[in-house]
Every structure is written in C-alpha cells, then in structure tokens.
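ok, trying the design again with the full structure, not the truncated one.
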C-alpha cells in the first residue's frame, strides 16, 4: 500500500463498487413496499447531512481563503447538482420496470453520450478510438439487453427512464469536472448535493404527501446515502489525484460488473452468456477510449 498508484486505484475501485451495489439495495427496498420517491428523498436528505458533517470535520480553511465561497460558484454548483438528483430519480424509476443488470447497462450509455457532449461543446471531432468505442458500446448494449432474443420482453418504460438517467448522469459528470474547481472537492460535493436535494424534494413532496413511510430512513435511508452519496465522493476524491484520468475511468467501470454480480447474488437475476459478452464489450470500449497506446495506434 506504499505504492500511491495502487492505493489510488483501490480507492477508486471501492468508490465505483459502492455505486454498483446501490441498485440492488434499491430493488430490495422496493420489495418491502417503499416507493421510488421515498427511497430517493431519504437518500438525498441523509446524504446531505452526511456531507455537511464531513465538511465540518475534514475541510479546514486556510487563512488566506475567504470566509465563504463566492455566491456565483455556489449557485453554479447547486444548479449542476440538480442533474445529480434527477439521475437518482430517473434511474430508480427505471429499475422498477427492468432488471438491475439492464438498468446499469442503460446508465453506462453516459460514456458515449459524454463523447457526443464533449464534441458539441468543444466543437472538435472525436478521435477514431472514441468513435470506435461509441459503436462498441452501442453493440455491447444490444447484446447486454437481450434485444436479439424474442423471448425477452423488456418494459420500454424502464429503457426510456434509464436513458434519461444516462443523459442526466452525463451532465453530472461534466459539471463535476468543470464547475468551481477552485473549491475543495468535499465542499463542491456538498453544494451539488444541496441542489440535488432541492430538486428531489420539489418532485417528491407531492407524492410523499400521499404516502410517506418514515421507516425508510431507518431501514434503507442510511445504507442508500452511505453507498450512493457519502462514500463514493470521499473515495474518488482521495483516489483520483493519485492516478491519471484515463486509469480512473477504466477502474470506475468496475461499477458495471459489480452491479450485475450483486443482482445475481441477492436478487437471483439471471445473466446469460450473451449478456456477459455485451458487458465485456462495453468494458473493453471504456479501456480503448482511455488507454493512450490504443489512441495513438488508431489515429
């Protein structure tokens, strides 16, 4: 563990694995009768409280720093954080209709959507390796979602919500890497969580007024907040600086197989050979996009 790259890689892998485990817990909460709005609301509220405590304990201001971050940066982070809240809502609704293994594949579409967004914003044509990776991800998705098997009936509501989650997640990733980078990572996470909690509250409260079981906080809220909004930003913040961005992206993709294995172990979801081939293709596409040697050879 004296090797900083190894240490950083393990921390990032643990952070991505936390995200991967999250959806299985959501499905288990569904099985106990809780709604997607109860689940999302409890996760965001407890996650916000957790990040406030983390900032109070670990974020120490330097004497040269201003007493408060500038208002414009705060508002930008809160606005960006709305995509964080929307991602949770869209994704959790999605897995009500489709298995976890397919839901996480839909969320991974954020990889190629990010390439398109980068090309539009940067007004620059993607490299050949990225174009190849995009088509590989699309092909892997066709296999991983069993679209070739007529015996598999997918609920297209789940697919649609999953794609919306991927769009929103892409915005979250972009904002996390570009908005108010001069602030401490924990503080940036906190203000994004404030924005996410506000949008989730606005959307959820009308439904929560009709049905709100407070037991969600006791049974699942803390677990969901821990694995969804507290541990990942801490682990990523500690691990990412020790490794390069490309390696970080590759290691973060461990979220996909972890989610599938968790669903297999705890939910008894069956994943056939064709689906595993699709998942492997998606993971290889992520590697191709982020390994410099492949990028150079495909130019």
């Amino acid at each position: 563990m004296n090797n900083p790259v190894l240490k950083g890689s393990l921390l990032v892998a643990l952070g991505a694995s936390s995200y991967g485990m999250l959806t299985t817990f959501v499905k288990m909460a569904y099985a106990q009768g809780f709604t997607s709005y109860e689940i999302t609301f409890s996760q965001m509220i407890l996650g916000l409280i957790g990040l406030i405590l983390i900032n109070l304990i670990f974020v120490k201001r330097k004497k040269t720093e201003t007493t408060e971050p500038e208002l414009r940066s705060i508002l930008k982070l809160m606005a960006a954080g709305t995509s964080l809240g929307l991602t949770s809502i869209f994704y959790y609704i999605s897995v009500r209709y489709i298995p976890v293994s397919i839901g996480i594949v839909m969320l991974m579409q954020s990889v190629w959507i990010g390439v398109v967004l980068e090309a539009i914003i940067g007004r620059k044509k993607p490299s050949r390796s990225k174009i190849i990776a995009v088509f590989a991800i699309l092909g892997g998705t066709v296999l991983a979602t069993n679209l070739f098997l007529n015996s598999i009936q997918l609920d297209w509501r789940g697919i649609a919500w999953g794609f919306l989650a991927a769009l929103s997640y892409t915005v979250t990733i972009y904002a996390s890497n570009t908005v108010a980078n001069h602030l401490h990572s924990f503080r940036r996470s906190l203000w994004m969580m404030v924005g996410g909690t506000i949008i989730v509250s606005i959307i959820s409260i009308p439904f929560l007024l009709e049905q709100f079981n407070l037991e969600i906080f006791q049974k699942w809220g803390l677990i969901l907040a821990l694995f969804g909004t507290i541990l990942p930003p801490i682990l990523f913040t500690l691990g990412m600086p020790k490794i390069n961005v490309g390696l970080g992206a590759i290691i973060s993709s461990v979220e996909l197989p972890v989610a599938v294995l968790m669903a297999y172990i705890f939910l008894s979801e069956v994943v056939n050979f064709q689906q595993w081939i699709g998942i492997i293709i998606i993971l290889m596409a992520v590697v191709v996009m982020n390994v410099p040697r492949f990028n150079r050879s495909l130019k």
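Keeping the full-length input from now on. The CA atoms of residues 22 and 119 lie 31 Å apart.
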